[in-house]
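User: Show me a protein chain along with its predicted structure.
Assistant: Here is one chain, sequence first, then structure tokens.
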Amino acid sequence: MRSQKPEQASAGADLTTVRLSLERIVKRYGALCAVDGVSLQAAAGRLHMVVGENGAGKSTLLRVAAGLVRADAGEVRVDGAPLRPHTVREAISRGVGLVEQHFALVDSFDALENVMLGAEPLASFGRLDRRVARERAERVSAELGVSLPWEARTDSLAVGDRQRLEIVRVLCREARTLLLDEPTAVLTTAEGKALYASLRRLVERGHAVIVVTHRLDEVRDHADEVTVLRRGRRVSHRANVGGDASLLEAVARDAMGEAQELRLEARRRNVGAPLLELHDVHRAPTLRGVTLTVRAGEIVGIAGVEGNGQRQLVRVACGLEAPDRGRVESAGVAVVHEDRERDGLALDASVRDNVLLGELREFSRRGLVDRAAVDREARRRLEILGVDAPDRDLVARALSGGNRQKTVVVRALGRLPRAPVLVLAQPTRSVDVTSARAIHAEIAGAADRGHAVLLLSADLGELRRLCHRVLVLAKGRIAAEFAPEASDVAIGEAMLGVSPAGAQP
């Protein structure tokens, strides 16, 4: 594989096919230069991936392209002409659609109303023509290979369905250039493959697609070309990369600036007394008799197709919901929820307050908060994973997606050992390779120190690398148990309800 040098112009496509061109984009936030002279092109019939560590400028670059953020320098061109005025409305009208990693849905609307919001087909008296709207939405969703509950309120949907709503909404506006920021972060492996199959069909029909991802295997398996950003600058661009076996190491080296070990082997641990037990737990509408035990020093994984009870399992395990039947026994739980925006962060509160959310009583005397102690503890926790927040008064909303994720993870880690059980749902979602390895090391270290970990993840590789045991949650029940050496095929079959080979009784 030939690699272009960093100083070469953004290329990889015939200029006559370029639908979107970012030319020497610069974007500063105060003293921070988030994007520093980056050029990038999206060509018709090409799937272009953008990778880099958290804070590399990937999401900012997409927001500039979609008209959400105005660059300080440089130009955005759509189909060869400047994007003027530089607004979201103009970008959409010219066929540029952005799916952000943080949902922009109205919770009180149903799924169909959210898909059509702003582009509603109207019946008499200005009412939404639900028949026409549904036909359009179902046509687009069928192209993506997904099925959505159109009549359901959006706030009742699982995180994966909300992500799919965002994608369908953009396509319903007839976008010819799709910008997707971490679209598979909330999807299982099978769902991610289905999404990329859908994107490939769009590409073959002449769409231009840019995908930001942290999953390097997605680059290897699906990209036509890849651009790597580091600290706001473009450091490399590679064209015609599909299936290149050496790509992961090269891209990781570009993104992190040095060779990276991409594999973390599972470590055997000594286990002790039970610290978390669920006994025949039922909780409408999804949990139907869950029984499991997590012992001191043990990491137990939960695999499953999204929507099989994972969210309620987390909420019941940490005490946010009481079971309708059965019982939960725990020694105290620190939790990371799968949806950090809805359940994990107060987005308009400071990073300092978020990392100590719910714990200020511990730093109070006679009703007064010891702000110096709060600041010291917040600084200590943020340093655990290197959260990039130089000003702890910065609101959480201003953090990148990866740094938001690291903030909720370090909050849970900081509650050890007072809460000796970690319940972690998708703890490495939207973080880069280096940060994921650091989170894995902290999880393994917590187990080594005698804590219990219940780990829910859509990444089967993550579960097999870290866990003592992998349980499959299907239709609200524990359907099978596997040793970490089990294959993805065996675990996947159990997730889909196939009688599994290699499962333990």
